[in-house]
Structures are given as structure tokens and as C-alpha cells.
């Protein structure tokens, strides 16, 4: 059995510094220049620029994001088999990061490449599918990295908070940059296409710099006894990891809720509230909540534990979703308030998900003696991608059933109601499912501390 030299225990490993936390935040900022760009704006790009119907786009989202989910499993196996002089995870940020950003440009350039509805739809499938595969090869190493940087619960919670801050900064920036373009070029698809091409090219340059910063500042400090993990070892660890399975099922429901809302948020601003530029305000309120939640998360975890905190944030989301659907469009401030409350819920749940996933790596090693960060995070990401697929598809189908007409200056009341329900009531249903599943999650803080201590004792005895 080959062993990779690293710090022998959580207590002996050097503490993470400001550069490590900032670099980790930069990594997810780079990820979201592609990921959040598609999550928030790809559907409206397809319906209002490319000319794909909402129903056809919903099917595309469902199929491609399921493809993305299986790409995550492939990427997890690639990661687990990799070991270089730069570490197991860091090389992917340099070699896989730039292709992701360039494919994001291509994904938002479909009309420039092809003419005709059928050819455009085929191009959308190909470009978005390639983007998903490339994204898996950078996101799986990125998500796996936290478990290899530290075993300290406080530092893991802080890494998760910085990750969410990186996401929030990018998402708010996207709203400020892209929302005015949607309003300015309404009814002018060619103008919107030109503007998006310039925007995504700039994002690609910025993203490469952010990935390089992550590569230079990250360090992999946690000791592993097996450098190159076999397929059998990977799947044995997954099969025996009950906390991971419970987390994945709950996350599937929560992510379905989140992506239903994200997919139609731009429609909510433009069509329900009557002004696409209000998307900026909705995004600042909902995504900006992370700046309130993140500094409090380590303290909250110490006070009540991850499980209770997770369920509490879910309850907040139930209240917010109902409010979003029933708020009168004539008083936008009411809707904005509930979007802000939903932001607190999603910020808390997402931050805790990353910390919980890292804990399941320790559980798997405790059970089997093998650390499998890559395939563990890949399965977690697999279920998140399924949630993205189902949430995006459900939202698209909902507005299609409501009679949404792409490019129309005004939507009828049935279409507006469908947008409101996809923004609120659909997320509420899936949040409730996620909470019911997570009630059975078995890992507590005391259990985690015992596992890590026993694993270190076994290693010391060898």
C-alpha cells in the first residue's frame, strides 16, 4: 500500500491562512462564471434569442443535466486515480478550467453558428453537453479539495462559507452585468447575442486568473494511505457510507427547489414584476444573504450542530417560498422581502451541504480505511446535478404549461401565475421532501470527533 506523505493528524496539520480561504473563494467564483451564468440566463437565452420553445428547452435541460450527473461520476474516478507532484486536485484547475470558460462562450453563441430551428436545437445540445463534461472535470476536484485541506470542523465550515461568498460575489455581479442587457435588448435578439458574446469572453479571461490563484494558494494537507484508489475501493466506500446517501437524497430535493426558483427568477422580475432590471435587486437580496449567513455559520454549527441548523434553514425556506408565490405583483417590495428570506435559507443550506459532504469522506475512511474524496464528492455532485436537471425542467415545463410565449412583449395571466408558482410553491414542495429525508441523517458532531480520533489511532498503530 503506497502512502502519500502529509500531516499525520488534524491537530498537527498547519492551520489554513487567509490566502487559502481567499483562494478557495476565488475557485468557486470562477466556477460560477460558467455555472451560474447558465443557471440564471440560459433558459431565457434559448427561448428569447435562439427561438427554442420553453418545453423543448425543458427537455434539453433535463437530458443534458442528467448527462452532467453521470459526467461527475466519470470525473470522480479520474480524480481518485490521479496523483501528481502538484497534488491530486490542483492540476485540474489549470488544465480543465480554461476549457470550461471557453465552452461557456460557445454555449451562449448558438445563433452565430447555425441557421434553422432543428440545427440550433442540436447545437444547443452539443455545446451545453460539452460544457457539462468539462465543468465536471474542474468542479469535482474543486469540491473534493476541502476534505483534503483540513480535518478541523471549524476550518471546514469556514471553507464552505468562503465558497459561498465566492458564489455570491459572482452571482450578484452577473445580475448587475446581464440584467440590464435583458432589458435593453428586449425584442432585439441579435443585439442581445452580440452583447452576450462580449460578456462571456470577458468572463473567460477573469475566470482563468481566478483558477490560477486557486492553484497557487491551495494546499493538500490531509494524510491518505492510498494514493491511487481502485474502482472497487471507490464503490465499496460509497456502498457503506449511509450518511452520504442520506445527504445526497436530501440534497436532491433541496437542489430541485433551488434550481426551479433560479431558472424562472429572471421571468419573475421581467414578466411578473414588470422590469427585468429588478432581477438585480432580487439577486442581491437572495444571493447577498450569504454575507449575513457566512460569518455566523461556524458559530452556529458550534452552538446547535450541523443537522439542526440544516433543518432550521429548511423551515425558513418553506415560509419564503409561500410568500414568493402569494405576494401581489403590485407591491414589489413584498416579493423582494421574501426573496431575501429565501436567500437566507438557501445560503444556510448550501453552506452546510459542503461541510456535511466533507464529513462523509471521514465516515467512509473510518468504515473502509480508504479516503475517496473524488468519488464521494462526485456522487454528491451527481445528485446536485440531478436536482439541477429536475428543477430546471420542472420550471420550464411549468411556464410552458402556463402558455408562456418566448419573445412576446406581454404574457397572459395564466403564464404569469405559472411563473409565480414555479418560483414559490414548487420549491416549497421539494424543500419539505428534503427536510423529511434529512431528519434521519445519522452523523452528529460527537460521532464525527470519535470517527476522526479512531482513524488517526489506527494509522498511528501501523
Automatic annotation (TrEMBL):
Transmembrane segments: 43-64, 91-110, 122-142, 162-183, 195-216, 244-266, 278-297, 309-327, 333-356, 386-406, 418-439
UniProt GO MF annotations: symporter activity
Lineage top rank: taxon: Bacteria
Biological processes, Gene Ontology terms: carbohydrate transport; sodium ion transport
Record-linked InterPro entries: MFS_2, MFS_trans_sf, Na/Gal_symport
Stored SUPFAM superfamilies: MFS general substrate transporter
One Pfam family, short name: MFS_2
GO cellular component, one term: plasma membrane
Keyword terms of this UniProt record: Membrane, Transmembrane, Transmembrane helix
Record's protein name: Glucuronide carrier protein
